[in-house]
Amino acid sequence: MTKEQKDNLFVLVKSLSKSEKRQFKLYVGRLGVNEDSKFLMLFNILDKLSVYDEAVILKKGIVKKQQLSNLKAHLYKQILISLRLNPSHQNVRIQIREQLDFATILYHKGLYKQSLKILDKAKTLAINNEEKNIAYEIVELEKIIESQYITRSLNNRADELTVQAKELSLQNVLASKLSNISLQLYGLFLKTGYIKNDAEHKRITKYFNDRLPKYDINKLGFREKLWLYKAYLWYSFLTLDFLSCYKYATKWVNLFYENKDMIVLNPVFFLRGNHYLLEALFYLRHYEKFKETLFKLEDVTKEKWFPLDDNNESLAFLYIYNNKFNLHFIEGSFAEGLPIIDEVLEQLKKYKNRIDEHHVMVFYYKIASMYFGAGENKKCIQFLEKIISNKSLQMREDLLCFSRILNLVAHYEAGMDYNLDVLIKSTYKFLIKMEDLYEVQKEFIKFLRGLGDIYPQDVKAEFIKLHKKLKEFEDDPYQSRAFLYLDIISWLESKIENKPVGFIISNKFQTEISQNS
Q1: Which of 1, 61, 200, 440 is the most buried (most CB within 10 A)?
Q2: 470, 492 in Cβ contact below 8 A?
C-alpha cells in the first residue's frame, strides 16, 4: 500500500479551523493588492485537495515548478503570522515575547527609557510565570541598554541586574540539566522498555546518579521542581519501582493543582503528569484511585478555562482513552469496553497528523487486547497484524514481542491452526533475536516449540504445567512486568477451567474489590 505523501504546508493548511481560515483570508485581504495574490490562490487550492498532489497544483498554472517551493515557503510564513495574530493562540508566553520584540525595536530607535519600561514589565511577567529563559534574555538586554542610558542610579542598577542575571542563569542551568536527564531516561525507556535483571538495575541507577545535579528542594521554583519530579519518575519507571512512580507523579500533578495558572500556561505537562499518575495506579492495581484520577482529569479538560487547542485536544484524547482501555482491563469488562474502539478509531482519523505512529501502534495493541478479552480473536489478529507488519518505525522491543505472542495465542484460540507451525517458527525466530528476554517469555518459547508434538488429549496437562511454572514469576519484581502486557496466567486458567478469559479476569477483579472493601 502506497503511503500518503506528507507535505508540511499541506498538513498545516488542513489543521486550520474554519475561523482560522477566515482570519487568514481577512489578514491577506488587509491590502487590496493581496486579494488575487499567488500565495492566496495556492492556499485555496490546497484547502480543496483531500491529499497533497503537486501535479494538480502545477496544472492550475499559477506558478512554475521551479518557483513552487518559494511560493510554498512564503504561504507557510504568512499562515504562521496570521495564527500568531489570532486571539485564540495568544498566551502569556507569546505576550512576553511580543513585549521583548517591542522593547528591542524601541532600543534600536534610541528610545532607551521607553524600552527599559517595557522590559521591566515583561521581566516581572516572565518571572511570575516561570518563563526564566526569556527572563534571562530580558535582563541581558537591560544590561546592554543600561550601559548606554546613563542614570544616577547606575551603580545600584548594575549590581541589581548582575545578581538577577546570575540567579536566573543558575536556575536555567539546573532546569536544563534536569530536563536533559529526564529526556535521556525517556529515550532509554522507548528503546529497551523496563529493566529485566539486577545488572540492568545497577546500570540505570549509576546512569541516573551520575547525571543528577545537586539541588536544594527549598530553593527550587515551579519549573525546576517539575523537571526534578519528571527525572525521578522516569528513573522509577525504568527500575519498576511503581510506588515511587506514584509518589513522583502525584508530586508532579499536585504541583499543578497548587498553581492553577500553570495548568493554563503548561497544559501539556499537566496532561502528561496525569497520564503517568494513571499508569502508576494501573500497575499498582489501585482501582478506586485510578477511576477517581481518570474522571477528574476528564472533567478538568472540559472546563471552559482549560486551553483546549489542537495540540492539547489530541493529547487529552490520547491520555484519557488510553486509560479508559486500562480501566476495562482492570475490571475485566472487555465486552463492555468494545464500544470505545469505534470512538478511538474515529478520533485517530481526526488526529492522524498530530499523534505519532508509535502511540497509534500502542492503541492498536490495546484494541487487540480488548477484542482478545471479549473472545473476538479474528478482530484481535487484524489489529496485531498492523503492528507486526509495520516496518517503518522503531517501536519498543517489548511491545513488538508481546504483539507476536498475543498474535500466536489469538490464532490458537480462533482455531486457525492451518499455518500455526509456520507462525510458531517465525515468532520463535523473532523472540530469540531479542536480548535479555523475560523468563516468562523464555518459558513460553519452550512451550511453543513443543506445541506441535503434543497430542490433543495431553494439551490440558501441558497448560497446567506451564501455568505452574509461570506462577513462580508472578511476584518476581522483574518478571511480573510481562504479565501486564499479556495476562498469560489468566489465559492459561481459562484453558484449564474451560471458561472465557474475560470471565477469569473479571472474577479476579471482583475478588480483589471484595477483599479491599
Answers
A1: 440
A2: yes
Is the pLDDT at 434 greater than 80? The verdict is: no
Please tell me the least confidently modeled range out of 8-17, 221-230, 236-245, 486-495: 486-495
Element (H, E) at 150: none
Residue among 18, 64, 13 at smallest CA distance from 38:
64
Q: Are 149 and 116 in contact (CB under 8 A)?
A: yes
Cβ pair 209, 116 in contact under 8 A = no
Distance between CA atoms of 384 and 116, rounded to whole angstroms?
Answer: 61
Q: What percent of the chain has pLDDT over 90?
A: 41
Residue type at 257 in one-letter notation:
Y
How far out from the chain centre does Cα 260 lie? 22
Question: What's at 428, amino acid-wise?
Answer: Y
DSSP 103-129: HHHHHHTT-HHHHHHHHHHHHHHHHHT
Give the span between the Cα atoms of 271 and 276, in whole angstroms.
9
Confidence band, pLDDT 50/70/90 cuts, at residue 516: low
CA atoms of 114 and 344, how far apart (whole Å): 53
CA dihedral angle for residue 93, residue 97, residue 99, residue 105, rounded to 10 degrees: -170
Tell me phi and psi for residue 284, to 5 degrees: -85, -5
The model carries a pTM of: 0.80
Q: What is the mean pLDDT of residues 230-247?
A: 93
Residues of the chain by 3-state class (helix, strand, coil), percent to 5: 75, 0, 25
Instruction: Report the distance separating Cα 100 and Cα 106, nearest Å.
Output: 10
**Contact (Cβ atoms closer than 8 angstroms) between residue 246 and residue 253:** no
C-beta of residue 115 within 8 angstroms of C-beta of residue 123: no
Find the mean pLDDT for residues 266-279. 95
- Please tell me the predicted confidence (pLDDT) of residue 258: 94
Closest CA to 272 of 221, 237, 305, 241: 237
Q: Give pairs for 53-61: CB < 8 Å, separation 24+.
A: 53/5
Cell 549509576 belongs to residue: 206
pLDDT at 390 over 50: yes
Mean pLDDT, range 56-74, rounded to an integer? 88
For the chain, the straight-line distance linking the first and the last C-alpha, in angstroms and rounded, comes to: 53
Cell of 417: 491452526
Quote the cell numbers at residue 477. Answer: 519484581
For residues 486 and 366, the answer to whether their CB atoms sit within 8 Å is: no
| DSSP codes of every residue in 15-38 | H--HHHHHHHHHHHTTSGGGTT-H
Of the given ranges (58-62, 327-331, 513-517), which has the lowest mean pLDDT?
A: 513-517
Question: For residue 448, what pLDDT is reported?
Answer: 72
Report the pLDDT value the prediction gives residue 89, as an integer from 0 to 100: 66
Torsion of CA 258, 261, 263, 265, to 10 degrees: -150
